[in-house]
Design a protein that fits this description.
The structure is a single chain. With about 100 residues, the chain is an alpha+beta fold. It is built from three helices and three strands; from the N terminus they run αββαβα. Strands 1-2-3 form a three-stranded mixed β-sheet, covered by helices on one side.
């Protein structure tokens, strides 16, 4: 099992999940704080939302869960939702800043 390859596949999946309110994928938005793949190919993802009262929170979490679960090497997925530290515009990747016209 190649943990790095699994993590790269997870990132590919996350880059195809978009917050419907912002035209940027959740990975480049900086909503993913940590991805951990253990020796049994169980994945733990720590993520946040742009706001605690995000109206599409359940949809985003379900999309992450389903998308990562669909990776053949992944045996299980656990998602930890956190608001510490709180998300802000500094979390955006350079690619996201460019896409949003902030560079």
């Amino acid at each position: 099992m190649d943990k790095l390859k699994i993590e790269q596949n997870i990132v590919k999946v996350l880059k195809n999940i978009y917050d419907p309110e912002i035209p940027v994928n959740i990975y480049d938005l900086g909503l993913i704080y940590e991805i951990t793949v253990n020796d049994e190919a169980k994945v733990e993802i720590t993520m946040t939302l742009t706001a605690p009262n995000c109206p599409v929170a359940d949809e985003l979490i379900a999309s992450v869960n389903e998308g990562v679960r669909d990776i053949p090497e992944v045996k299980d997925v656990s998602i930890n939702l956190t608001f510490e530290p709180a998300w802000d515009m500094n979390c955006l990747s350079e690619e996201a800043r460019l896409e949003l016209g902030m560079l």
